[in-house]
Amino acid sequence: MQLVVFVIASLMVLVGAVGVVLRRHPVHAALSLVLTLFGVAVHFVAQEAHFLAAVQVIVYAGAIVVLFLFVIMLLGVDSADDLRIERLPIQRPLAAVMGVGIVGLLIAAVVATRGSEPLQAGAGINVAGVGIDDAVAGHDANITQLAGNLFADYVFAFELTSVLLIVAVAGTVVLTRREKPPSEEDAP
Amino acid sequence: MSQYLPVVALAIVTVLFGALSFGASRLLAPRRPSSAKSAPYECGILPSQEPPERFPVSFYIVAMLFIMFDIEIIFVYPYAVARSSLGLYGFVAIVVFSVLFFLTFVYEVARGGLDWGPLQRSRNLESAAAVVSPERTTTTTIRRVGTEGRGEPGEAA
Amino acid sequence: MTGVLAIDPLLFGELKWMPLVIVALKVLVIFVVGLVGTMFMVWFERKVIAGMQNRIGPNKAGPFGILQTLADGVKLFFKEDLLPDRADRFVFRLAPFLAFVPAFLVWAVLPLGGDYRDGNRGLVEWFGHATRVQLADPPVGILLVLALSSIAVYGIMLAGWSSGSKYPLLGAVRATAQMVSYEAALGLSLAAVLLTSGSLSTVGIVGTQDSLSNWNVVATGVVPFVIFVIAATAELNRPPFDLVEAEQELVGGFNTEYSSLRFALFFLAEFMNTITMSGVIVTLFLGGPQPLAIGDWTADIPLVGNGLEGTIWFLLKLLLFLYIYVWFRATLPRLRYDQLMDLGWKVLIPISLGWFLLLAALRLGRDEDWNVWLVAGVSVAGLLVAAVVMFGAMKVSGRNRQQGAVY
Fold it and tell me: What is the CB-side half-sphere exposure of residue A54 using CA atoms within 13 A?
């Protein structure tokens, strides 16, 4: 069962990821991204991280990719756009560097954890007081423990998130709204 | 994980139902394609304009703000579920977070990020009256709007 | 403690044959009930709205015209399926499924019945196995509904975009902006429910509502309930929030280019969503299948066994909401788009956030044995300050707009 779920979820992730790169049409690429995000959500569920799985779908698939699609659809980005024309010259070298960096990190992580015990699903989730088999995390064990982490142990990081949100909103306002002198509006 | 099994089963049944219905419809329905049928439907008028290429920026702002609120909601849920064990400390944490969040929202509102619809400017009543033709009398209330009042600077658009 | 009771005991531990058969039966029953219920809903809406408008409504097919929807559905099978020239073929075919499948899946987490007498907490025994009258109770619980409604947005957005025609595109853009806006209000008012129930699971949420004063509509102080109902109506794109398919402006909205069975799937999804959303409201705020209980007295439906009674209660409450939705449609005129957005962002969202914090403060005060009136007073004062700030912001933006200073 574990293996089957793992294979299916990994296939979703990989097919989606390849699709994002290879699909010609930007909307199709964004939809492939949704597939990848779903695969990751299934992986989360398989690791008994239920709340994270829900967040993955609600925030990433439900909000962020919707924003992507909005931009793609509404700007009328056409598939006929020539990809060889470089709009931001630094983009591709940067992407290459990032890609190599991530691959390096992954390899390092695999090598570093080679000798250690395989992680059990739901490991680290405190199911005390839930009273069933340890293999199954209790219903709300997940979210309760996360709440403990967020609002007690890592409260500073949590509050910093709101600062991040401020930056994001301010950025949106600055980028999208432009001051216009009143005279220009009234001119014929 | 087996708790999800029924949901997956229901999803499979639903997709199968959709696919089978399409199969049935394919066998049962006629196929007489014509160029009129496959043109964009615009109530019989020949499509002359392309679909709009660009949309007002307000839609992006809404999508962007929705991400913010989604994140806020996602942070509120753990607090709501585990409130009894978090006590005053957790409450202060969520209040500080919400207040900061609310202030950014207020900033966005104050800058007009969520303003929709036409500008509501105070109208010059006299120039508005000029648009109405003299045919509008006490016996007929039909407002005949002609070109006579139009074309004034600032009034158009 | 709810942890143990929340998980469906049927699917706990090693999987055996009999439980799997029961699950398969449940899936089939829910699927059929979903389809039949949707047909009923279409008929119900047409009949009730006809009554409200002094008409007769469907009355030819079957007794009281109840088979009218079936006839309409069968007819759609025989209609030509059009694929517009300028459509994006893959997405055009995918979109109906994205609208239709999530609509069905919400059924999975709704408690549809059960035995709530004598401290049974909703467990029933079928074929010698204790289980719940509910398809599944995954640990994400009610968040599944939110996740599914965020997927349903894709169905509408992609349907409109992939048609390659201007009115569907306009309709889809409107719909998406509307749905995401009200999803935020929906999520925030849901937080108030989670505060009282202390659990994400629908079984847990229903479990805490064991008497009228514990029903969340009372326990959370009505405001989240009202906001949830309004936001749910907007989320469903039902009147008075049906700008998505405002016929006068947009032909038919996002599904203009769809015909035959593809259209049928959208139609089905729309009405299915109405039913499931009513079910969600009943579950969250009206105690789901719990019987009406005031103090020590519990309403009893005569001649019905305890195991069936929960289902009847659920259906009664559900019917109430279906009627209310039809009533909305018959009564309320459609909103303008700027009114819609203002209502969602500037009224519902701030109020639901404020109300959540107020509830949290009151509960905290109760836990810590503070003076209730003092806590309430301080919180209300804080909320008033926030309201003043909000009104100030709206005034500033209004003035800027009048002067044309900010674009």
Answer: 28
**Which residues pair with residue C129 across a beta bridge?**
C126
Q: Among partner residues C143, C177, C401, which is closest to B59 by beta-carbon distance?
A: C177
Total structural domains within chain A: 2
Q: What is the dihedral of CA B91, B94, B99, B102, to 10 degrees?
A: -140
Q: In this model, does residue A128 exceed pLDDT 80? A: no
Spatial CA neighbour of A174 closest among C405, B98, B107: B107
In a domain, A188, yes or no: no
Residue of B nearest to A151 (CA): B90
Q: Which domain holds residue A152?
A: 136-179
Q: What is the Cα–Cα distance from C73 to C79, expressed in whole angstroms?
A: 10
Query: What is the complex's ipTM, to 2 decimals?
Result: 0.85
Q: What is the CA radius of gyration of chain B?
A: 29
Q: Which of A5, A71, A168 sits opposite B1 (nearest CB)?
A: A5
The two three-digit tokens of residue A102, written as one number: 């991530």
If one counts every other C-beta atom within 10 angstroms of the C-beta of residue A116, the result is 7
Alpha carbon distance C65, C139 (integer Å)? 42
Amino acid at C132: R
Q: What is the pTM of this model?
A: 0.86
Collapsing DSSP to helix, strand or coil, A129 comes out as: coil
Structure tokens at C209: 């509502």
Q: What is the pLDDT of residue C384?
A: 92
- Per-residue model confidence as pLDDT tens digits over A142-173: 788 888 888 888 888 888 888 888 888 888 87
pLDDT at A179 over 60: no
Q: How many domains does chain B have?
A: 1
Sign of dihedral through CA atoms C230, C196, C352, C344? negative
Please give the structure tokens belonging to residue C325.
Answer: 């939705």
Whether the Cβ atoms of residue B119 and residue B154 lie closer than 8 Å to each other: no
For the record, the structure tokens of C265 come out as 């799937």
| Residue C239 φ/ψ, nearest 5 degrees | -55, 145
All residues of chain A having their beta carbon less than 8 Å from the beta carbon of residue B86 are 147-148, 151-152
Q: Write out chain B residues lying below 8 Å of A71, CB-based.
A: 60
Between chain A and chain C, the number of residue pairs with CB atoms below 8 A apart is 118
* pLDDT, mean of residues C217-240: 89
Q: Which residue has the higher pLDDT, A181 or C19?
A: C19
Residue B11 lies in a domain: no
Residue B50 has what pLDDT?
A: 67
Task: Please tell me the distance from the alpha carbon of residue C130 to that of residue C110, in angstroms, as a whole number.
Answer: 18
Query: ∠ CA C332-C251-C148 to the nearest 5 degrees?
Result: 70
- Are A38 and A54 in contact, with CB atoms under 8 Å apart? no
- Nearest CA among B98, C188, B3, C135 for reference residue A142: B3
CA distance B114 to A39: 35
Contact C389, C395 (CB under 8 A): no
Structure tokens at A183: 């005279």
Residues of chain A contacting C157 with CB distance shorter than 8 Å = 66, 69, 73
Place of tokens 């003092």: C374
**B66 at A interface, C-beta within 8 A:** yes
SS3 of chain C: helix, strand, coil, percent, to 5: 70, 5, 30
